[in-house]
Write the structure tokens for this entry.
Amino acid sequence: MSLTTVESPFAEAEIENEAKRLLAKLMHVECDSRHSWNIDTCRSIVPLTLEINALKKEKDAVILAHSYVEPEIIYGVADFSGDSYMLSMKAKEANAERIVFSGVVFMAETAKILSPQAEVIVPDRNSGCSLADSLTGAQLRELKAAYPEAGVVCYINSTAEVKAECDVCVTSSNVYKIVAAMPQKQILFVPDRLMADNIRVEMKRLGIEKEIVSSDGTCIVHDQFDPELITESRAKFPGVKVVSHPECTMDITSESDYVGSTGGMMQYVKQTEAPYFMMLTECGLVERIEVESPEKRFISGCKLCPFMKMNSLEKIRDALISPQPSQLIELEEDLRIRAHRSIDRMFEMS
Ligand code: 13P
Ligand code: SF4
């Protein structure tokens, strides 16, 4: 994000009020290593946030932002922010001509699957995801041929092409419930092999007999945490609660006090009394909790998702003014309908 002063058509008083409103939130962000938020940094971005908020009205656009994107997007311009499940519900309910999805490409694709009438915009077409990009529809068809009896479950971090090949789509907030309810004993779960490991453990804990087969994708953020860090932090910070995502390795999840979706982790921290929390997830979530529950204390440990961080206020503004063809999500209708079925099934089973 550039913090240079922008020529602005907005009145000084309006800029000052908005800068103060933003500062009241962003001043709590400590985890952001790029810069500390003060009244000057807030003032410098306000012409852009005001411009985007005016463009939203003019263009009948709604902005959905994943919790991992920068806080100035979440608190400056987003209409809704949250985890994949919450945002897919919002995309489904969106009654707007345009949806700008500040997240990664598979999330914008999901919004298009659910709201085909809307123009769906992704601020940066390169905002991929190591999980979604690990498996093509053709590769999944090969796997299905190798396991013809399996129920096919795909994680929402997958392409529309992969979703179109699945029986049901899941997010990290409903994966265990849906896998447990599948009629088949053998489940082909794609594309996250670490989440597949966590599903195996959870099914065993629940006493549900399932055979989980997976493909070989991992999240380049959540597969990086070192379990040594947990041991060291527990020794150094007695009472610390360790929180992780089911995309982490079992070395991490088995040593965590809570494992859950982005929304689940946020709720857990807000509702739990502890002297410190260590968040083994993306840093954007820590920043959100710092803003919304400033009394919570964190031990460093989180990591950045390079794809989520490709989002910026400038790219959102430019895409609202005049989207580049690469920023528009287009899906072939037959593929969209098939992908839609697997997401609809998720809503039914959640
Ligand atoms: P959530 O489903 O928890 O939002 O996670 C999405 C994601 O990309 C996690 O890395
Ligand atoms: Fe994909 Fe991992 Fe980034 Fe989430 S954090 S978008 S799973 S690479």
